């Protein structure tokens, strides 16, 4: 049976039953702006940016939460739609404190980008902004409630993507706020500092503390790499300015992590700049160590191995492979011990 059809901006497209208007539009290269939509999560329709005009409907409909239906005639950029989006943006801007010049999100903020796109130059309303203080008492995440548009993406990222269930909506009306259990700071809550909420926040309400003042989005080069911490192999972007990592983010739609990271991959990148890091092999001499070349260190290890095998047999040796190694390295390690050295004494350390 052929797929059902509908019309978007006078273009006829087919869709799979169960898809929303937003999914059909994006699949066909038609941009409908969103602030609250988070792929693969339950649509909330909270931000009202994706409103579209559907012929015959009594009001504008939220594309993210409206199922596509056979024969629908949809306009995504009609004057009525644009008017609604402009008004919505004004209201969002009026409900917070938005000084883009000094905001960490400047250049990467979706609210700013949409205000620019729709030409929102002045805000006609005086909002009742909350005066919750900035939460800055942990080393990793800054929460600035004055820039929060209550889109709920952080809540979905925490509860549906990472399933940490550390945050939710709190209070009512103009006092509404994203809260942890008991409205405690992140560092006294169930938060595990995976930073997923920061990655999905469309504004400057949640930002990486270590990246503060380190560079603007347009100054940074993105370099894709594999997280060095464990064998899972999560795909990450390094945001690099002048050769220095400013922050990391997860690569969306890439296996195996599909846009997720844990606290180590998200925030643990700066160990490479630690002064305590060993960068050359050390050979013990007496009570201390001296620096050596790799060739000298490896020759020494090989000669010691040979000596032990000659004196006590191969079972006198044992290997412990790092659980953070990739599978291929662990395979080579067991091959070295079993096939070359001749012992089954091979294990790996517990993953941390
Ligand atoms: S959150 Fe966005 S709109 Fe608000 S000040 Fe920051 S950059 Fe500007
Ligand atoms: S850092 Fe992770 S656990 Fe903490 S609130 Fe954000 S998403 Fe939830
Ligand atoms: S903190 Fe960010 S992601 Fe969470 S509700 Fe506010 S604006 Fe949305």
UniProtKB/TrEMBL annotation:
* Predominant location category: membrane
Which parts of the sequence belong to the 4Fe-4S ferredoxin-type domain? 139-169, 182-211
Biological processes per GO annotation: ATP synthesis coupled electron transport
The segment(s) forming the 2Fe-2S ferredoxin-type domain are 4-80
A Pfam cross-reference name: NADH-G_4Fe-4S_3
SMART domains membership: Molybdop_Fe4S4, NADH-G_4Fe-4S_3
Q: Does the keyword Hydrolase apply?
A: no
* Molecular function as annotated in GO: 2 iron, 2 sulfur cluster binding; 4 iron, 4 sulfur cluster binding; metal ion binding; NADH dehydrogenase (ubiquinone) activity; NADH dehydrogenase activity
Its name, as the record gives it, is NADH dehydrogenase (Quinone)
- Source organism (scientific name): Desulfarculus baarsii (strain ATCC 33931 / DSM 2075 / LMG 7858 / VKM B-1802 / 2st14)
């Amino acid at each position: 049976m052929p797929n059902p059809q509908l019309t978007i901006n006078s273009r006829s497209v087919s869709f799979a039953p169960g898809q929303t208007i937003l999914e059909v539009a994006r699949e066909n290269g038609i941009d409908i702006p969103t602030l609250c939509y988070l792929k693969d999560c339950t649509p909330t329709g909270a931000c009202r940016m994706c409103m579209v005009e559907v012929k015959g409907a009594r009001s504008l409909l939220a594309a993210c939460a409206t199922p596509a239906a056979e024969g629908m005639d949809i306009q995504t950029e009609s004057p009525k739609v644009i008017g609604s989006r402009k008004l919505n943006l004004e209201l969002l801007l009026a409900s917070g404190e938005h000084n883009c010049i000094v905001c960490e999100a400047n250049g990467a903020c979706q609210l700013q980008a949409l205000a620019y796109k729709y030409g929102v130059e002045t805000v006609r309303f005086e909002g009742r902004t909350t005066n919750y203080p900035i939460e800055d008492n942990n080393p990793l995440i800054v929460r600035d409630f004055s820039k929060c548009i209550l889109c709920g993406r952080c809540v979905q990222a925490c509860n549906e993507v990472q399933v940490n269930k550390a945050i939710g909506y709190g209070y009512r009306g103009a006092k509404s706020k994203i809260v942890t259990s008991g409205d405690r700071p992140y560092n006294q809550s169930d938060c595990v500092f995976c930073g997923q909420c920061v990655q999905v926040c469309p504004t400057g309400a949640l930002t990486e503390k270590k990246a503060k003042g380190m560079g603007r989005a347009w100054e940074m080069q993105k370099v894709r790499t594999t997280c060095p911490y464990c064998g899972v192999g999560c795909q990450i972007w390094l945001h690099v300015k002048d050769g220095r990592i400013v922050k990391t983010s997860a690569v969306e739609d890439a296996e195996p992590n599909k846009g997720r990271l844990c606290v180590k991959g998200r925030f643990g990148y700066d160990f490479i700049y630690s002064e305590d890091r060993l960068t050359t092999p050390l050979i013990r001499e007496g009570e201390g160590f001296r620096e050596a070349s790799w060739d000298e260190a490896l020759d020494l290890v090989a000669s010691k191995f040979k000596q032990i095998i000659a004196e006590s047999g191969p079972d006198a040796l044992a290997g412990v492979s790092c659980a953070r190694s990739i599978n291929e390295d662990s395979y080579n390690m067991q091959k070295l011990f079993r096939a070359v050295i001749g012992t089954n004494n091979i294990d790996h350390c517990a993953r941390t």
